[in-house]
Structures are given as structure tokens and as C-alpha cells.
Amino acid sequence: MGALTDKYCIVGVGETRFMKASNRTPLSMACEAVKKAMDDAGLTAREVDAITSFQIADSTDVANVAQALGIRINYGSVAYSGGSTTEALTAHAIGLIEGGYCNTVAIFRSMNGRTGRRMGGQAPGGVVPPSRAEGDAQFYMPWGFTTPAQHFAPSAMRYLHDFGASTKSFAEVASAFRYHAGLNPKALMRAPMTIEDHQRSRWVAKPFRLLDCCLETDVASAFIVTSRERAYDLRQPPVFILGGSARTYADNPAWNHSRLRPYLQAGNFARQRVWGMSGIRPEDIDVLSIYDAFTYTVILQLEAYGFCAIGEAAEFVKGGRLRIDHELPTNLSGGHLSEGYAHGVALVNEVVRQLRHRADDSCPGWAEGRHTYDRQAGCRQVRRARFGASLGWGTETRGSCLILRSASA
Amino acid sequence: MPGEIDYSKINIIPDQDTAEWWEGTKRHKFLVRQCKQCGHKWFPPFPACAKCTSMDLTWYETAGKGVIHSYVVVTQPILAAFVTAVPYVVGLIELDDCHEADGRLTRVAGVMKDDEAEVAIGLPVEVVFEPTGDPNFIMPRWKICGTASNTWKFTE
Ligand SMILES: [Zn+2]
Asked: A104 and A169 share a domain?
């Protein structure tokens, strides 16, 4: 068990709508997400005293959000980094509160990921103008090798080669998450997707098709971390933090293609610490979020964190195993593939909502924890939600995770 | 053959760690970094040895031959320079003559001269150097230079 296991909680979650074109500033969206998370928790602006965020020169500073919402902060900072930073900032928050630097931390990510700066350097509306190849980009930009899809594809190709897998396993992942998105009124893409729909979608970077890629999205999302003692007084059932990985790197931390094997991604280096610290095992997890930048990143993380053995995930995901009411309900919001790409924060929010038993679905009583479990009627709440996890992904070389439990577990 | 790459739309900015590498390409040399203390070889040219932390480094000129370890077929262009090049293949190539300290072959990425139909994991390749229109930059590309018995191709 970790020294701080069960001492800190996530007490509030919130986000803007998931949008294709927000027509808003990242500042405005960040304010909305943080305010909604505070309202959700029953916290006033006077009770939040720290704000952290992360970005890639595409968002707003925490000071602006603090000023706009009238929050005087005892701590604020912005990390310049990507996907696996959500769980990292949660670990920062725990350390800061434990050290007495602040009491209650709001963590947000706000970006116009579709109409503003797009991942991989693509400009809004098409290809980019002449590009500056500096730093390590000197050795990938001139080879036309810049986007996440392009960077992860050779790893996926080698995986298919090594294990005799096919992209039908990718389709299983995409289709399961789309089914969940159909139960999530917030999700951008809700129409059902069959295995065949996936297989017919156009190529982007082989072996990835369009429906292997997450949705570039304009969105802000936020959650709030505070101590157990404060959490008891707040509006929602607290969700307890058991442990995780703040941000673990693989053996070749900077260069994806220098790693020995695709399946030796960062999570493999974190796994023993994560479960040892949390005091539970993969088989205890009732609700899982996995950073689905691509379908394939789900495959790799299932293996890395021990949900199945290395080389087995392509088989493991078949038969709807990741779907609600099956063995391992995963990305119940629809995830980045179908709800929208929120750089990991919304994936945590979904696990929190499930562990509270308050998935914001079509059940009239969801806010009070009353669910029908009728999927035809749009209920998204899993029946048993005691333990949850969110697995974060930066690239194959860096990952993070957060293990959570419900107040009733 | 893939279409032309318009290198004029990429502005390469060498720095103190990489300028000698780019100089090498002008003389049709594909260099990798080598540690003088332990012999470890790596690419791209990070400024210290990851096996022994030495910063006493030299360059090793590879023969520029290797085997395709994996690849991606890019069908949707993102960079302006590659709009006319799609579909093109970026190969991950394991160099025949560059071992890391643990015996693993040093891996580099590069754009293939060959089409998707010809590329397969396991095929031998060699480096070729092509002009970019800017005399200060000569670009390495890779092309298939033989056959192999145990190859694998993505056929979906
Ligand atoms: Zn050395």
C-alpha cells in the first residue's frame, strides 16, 4: 500500500460540451469546466486554493482562470506536456496538499483541439505551411513522420507481425466504445459502429484507419482533488485515490522507435508499483478508462498493466469483453474515440461518475444514483462499481495511471 | 515510386548537437553517434551515452545497410512538403553494422524510395542520398536492395 492511499479524493468533475467548433477562447472554456467541477463538489471559489493545468502552447494560464473566477490560489502551475499529464497532476496535487502548500486543487485541460492547434502540426482546415524542423523534429519532420498516428503505426505494424493479430481487434475496441457513447448524451459520435464499419473506413496511416483515431475536439474538462477529511463534507460521495503512476517512462524515453519491442511501453515499467501501491489487482477493476488516442493504444495498455499477458490483448478484446455488462467495462463515456478528445481528463471524470454510481446518462434519477440498468433506455451506469482505474498515455514511452475506489467499496 | 517531396516547405534548423550529422549527409555519409568509452552507437545524436553517461563521443559512419523492422504507410498528408508524396512508406530500419551496447541493432526511421507494394518487414535496404534543392541539405532515403526468405507484409 502507498503511504497516502485512501487519504485523498476526487470530489468534483466538470466539463464543457464536446464540440467540433467551440468559437470560444480556451480561457472561457477552462472557467466553465472549473466552475462546473466546483459546483459539482459543492465548493465555492474561496475554498479552492490551487489550480494546475497542462498544455502544448495551446491553452490559457492558470492565473487567468483564477482571476476570472475570483479564486486566490496558494499554488498554481502549468505543465508543458501531453496525454499522461492528467494523472501526473493528480499526484502533484496529493503531494502539495500533504505538504501543507494548499488544501484543494482544481486540475483542468482546455483546448481547441480541432479548430485551434491540432496534434502533429496539422493546421485548422488542412495541411500546414512550411514547417520548422528544429530539436528532435530535425530527425522526423523531413521524413514525413510527425503525427501521433504516424509515430504509433510502425509499433502497431510490428505488433500485428509479432503476434499474428489483425486489425479486427482494433475494430472490437472502436465498436465497444462507440456503443458506450450511444449511452452518453455528452458524446460527439453516438451512432452505432459495427466491425465492418470500422474495416471499411479510409486509411490514415496503415495499419490505422480513420475509425482507429480519436476525435480532435474543442473542449475543457476539470476535476478537483482534496483531502479525505474535507471530502466528507462535500456534495458528492468521495472517490478515493488508492495509488497509481505519476508519470513513468520506458527505457528509451524520448524516441518511440528506439524501444526494443512495442509491448515494452511505459506501463510495463509502472505495473508492479501501481498495483503494489494500490493494494488491489487488475481483476478487481470494475470500471476502466484507457487513453484511447488510437484503438491500438488500448491494446497495448491492457497488456502493460496486466489485464492480460503480452501478445494476448488482440484476442482478449474480442466478443465485446470491454463492453458494459461484460467482463471489463472500458471507456464507458465513449472515450477519446467517440466522446471526444479531452487529453485524458474526461476519462478520469467518467470513472469518478461511475464509482459514485452517478453516471450522467438518460436515467431520470441519475443525479441521485438511481439507475435502471436498461441499456435500451440509455442507462450507462455499471451495476457493480467498487474499483476503477484510468490509464494515461503520453506516447508509448510515457504513461501514467490512477487507481480509484468508490466510497462504498 | 512515391511522389516528389517538396523539401522547400521544411526549414531544417541544425543545432550544436546535430550540425556535424547534417554535414555528413552532404558527403553522402550516414553517421550515428558513438561513445568513445564503451562503443555504444545511437541515433538521433543525443549528446551523451545512454549506456555509460560518457560525453566523450565520436561519429561512426555506417555502411548504410539494414533490414526493415517495421513501417507505416502514410496515406493522408499532414506536412505541406508531403502533399505530393502520398502514399509513402516510412520504414524503421535496423542497421547491420550498428549495435547498441546490449547487442541490439540501432534503429533509424526514414522515407522509403519504394512503394507500399514492394515494402515488407525483413527486406534488406540501403541508404541513398537525394538533393533537396538546397545545397546545404542532402536527404537520406532508403531503398530495397535485395530479397529475403522470411518477410511479412501488411495485406489488409
Ligand atoms: Zn558509453
From this structure: no
- Please indicate, yes or no, whether residues A226 and A251 belong to a single structural domain of this protein: no
Which residues, at least 6 apart from A170, have a Cβ–Cβ distance to it below 8 Å? A198, A207, A208, A209, A212, A294, A295, A296, A299
d(CA B100, CA B122): 20
* Sign of the four-CA dihedral A367, A370, A373, A374: negative
B5 lies in some domain: no
Enter the ipTM: 0.95
Q: Which pTM value belongs to this model? A: 0.95
Q: Which helix (H) or strand (E) holds A32?
A: helix A26-41
CA distances from B125 to B5, B68, B113 (A): 20, 7, 10
- Min CA distance, B39 vs chain A (Å)? 17
Write out residues 131-150 of A within 8 Å (CB-CB) of B: 131-136, 138-147, 150
pLDDT digits (tens, 9 = 90+) for A230-264: 999 999 999 999 999 999 998 887 777 777 777 78
SS3 of residue A405 by DSSP: strand
Taking the CA of residue A127 and the nearest CA in chain B, the distance in Å comes to 5
Q: Which helix (H) or strand (E) holds B67?
A: strand B65-74
